[in-house]
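Thread title: Can someone regenerate the structure for this chain?

I was given the following input by a collaborator and told the matching structure tokens would be attached. They weren't. Posting the sequence so someone can regenerate them.
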Amino acid sequence: MTNLNQEEQEILTSYNNDEWSSVATPERIAELQSYAKATLNQKKIVTVQLSSFDLEVIQAQAKEKGISDQTLISDILHEYVTSNLVRN
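Best answer:
Regenerated them for you:
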């Protein structure tokens, strides 16, 4: 690492030498994980303009899957941003 002052370098060295241990209890870890999960699950409303053709295809595919078109769009976007869906 670069640009560390002496104190920061000492802390980093100490950490790298396994001189630190967690004081978190399993209960605290579970609490923090629930906070993180709640934050990630927050929904936001967005407006997107689609061509009529694209919307019709999305609606048809959503109907086949038994889900709403909004859910399908959300699923597609999630897969894309998590790199599970890539453009050829």
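Helices lie at 6-16, 26-40, 52-65, 69-81.
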